[in-house]
């Protein structure tokens, strides 16, 4: 996987710090060009109703069409964007593309909610709220058709600022999803403290063995109590989907149904 490769790269470069620094500099330069040359693409992965099997939402996932290396997954470049601050531009680009695409689907008669991932840097920037608002206005997009995904670590240890940004996004009418749940600190207190609409159970739970799944059962029960919707991530097999359905989890996402696809392939899927 990309993540594994990332780790190996790091181990490899560790032996030669000079090479690591120049590789990193080359990546940064390539990334700056990528903005100028519009090399970023947004793909969309369906989020499917476990009950009726319909695509109810999609998650926007950014890719970089590198002129030499082909289509790159986010774990090859997001971290550098984050550390250089380029993530603010990238985040804006993805948000705008996703909102535009949502309104295009809407015009075609498909009400498809679009989820967008937020990075910690964006979340630390109070201006993100007004920026989102103007993008929604410019495209005539109904905020209730947009969701943002944040991770647990983004809520940790910065109560004041993160709760204001979270509240601001929420006040626009955008729903808030907690991504990769169960992999972080799983501090249950903030599930009550913050306004969270949807909880996405990380694929590690969905893909784990039966003995490890009681934790997932607890997460689902807790969501019921707190009135949050639940999405299962990383459903790859029918057996996993059966288990997800049996838990009454309302939506799932994963390779079993579809990998992330370019927007036109989603069009075809909706037409079918
Ligand atoms: P994420 O938000 O948790 O997205 C889900 C990731 O799991 C995606 O990887 C998706 O392709 C992958 N996935 C979906 N179904 C399955 C499955 O059945 N099995 C397996 N093994 N994997 C599955 P992707 O697209 O490589 O994205 C990785 C991460 O990069 C995302 O994790 C998200 O944290 C980040 N990311 C992606 N796009 C953006 C973006 O526009 N902005 C920011 N800040 N982060 C992004
Ligand atoms: Mg996500
Ligand atoms: Mg996730
Ligand atoms: Mg993830």
UniProtKB/TrEMBL annotation:
Domain of life, per lineage: Bacteria
Residues shown, of full length: 389 to 660 of 660
Name of the protein: EAL domain-containing protein
Domain EAL: 24-272
């Amino acid at each position: 996987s990309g993540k594994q490769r990332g780790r190996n790269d790091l181990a490899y470069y560790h032996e030669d710090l000079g090479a690591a620094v120049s590789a990193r500099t080359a990546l940064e330069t390539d990334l700056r060009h990528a903005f100028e040359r519009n090399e970023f693409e947004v793909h969309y992965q369906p989020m499917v109703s476990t009950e009726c099997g319909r695509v109810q939402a999609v998650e926007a996932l950014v890719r970089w069409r590198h002129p030499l290396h082909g289509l790159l997954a986010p774990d090859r470049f997001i971290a550098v964007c984050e550390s250089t601050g380029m993530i603010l531009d990238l985040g804006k680009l993805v948000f705008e593309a996703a909102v535009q695409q949502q309104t295009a689907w809407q015009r075609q008669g498909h009400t498809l909610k679009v989820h967008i991932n937020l990075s910690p840097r964006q979340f630390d920037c109070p201006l993100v709220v007004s920026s989102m608002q103007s993008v929604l206005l410019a495209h005539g997009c109904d905020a209730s058709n947009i969701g943002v995904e944040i991770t647990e670590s983004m809520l940790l240890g910065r109560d004041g600022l993160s709760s204001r940004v979270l509240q601001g996004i929420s006040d626009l009418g955008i729903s808030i999803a907690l991504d990769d749940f169960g992999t972080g600190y799983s501090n249950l207190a903030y599930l009550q403290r913050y306004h969270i609409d949807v909880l996405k159970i990380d694929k590690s739970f969905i893909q784990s063995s039966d003995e490890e799944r009681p934790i997932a059962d607890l997460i689902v029960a807790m969501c019921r109590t707190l009135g949050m919707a639940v999405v299962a991530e990383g459903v790859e097999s029918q057996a996993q989907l059966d288990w997800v359905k049996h838990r009454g989890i309302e939506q799932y996402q994963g390779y079993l149904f579809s990998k992330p696809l370019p927007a036109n392939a989603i069009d075809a899927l909706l037409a079918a």
